[in-house]
């Protein structure tokens, strides 16, 4: 998949040149009600956008 970098050596879609050969990928939260950090999404390219939490509260700065 062009533009997607893969660092997981155990993944069958890793082409071992830093690329991903999967036709599609799925990115989801890490079970947190608010995905406000890289750790919350397990996505190192995550950049927090302005959102509200499950209670409707603004969670942006």
UniProtKB/TrEMBL annotation:
Pfam family, one: DUF1540
Domain (DUF1540): residue spans on this chain: 4-46
InterPro entries: DUF1540
Protein name stated in the entry: DUF1540 domain-containing protein
Lineage per the UniProt record: Bacteria, Bacillati, Bacillota, Bacilli, Bacillales
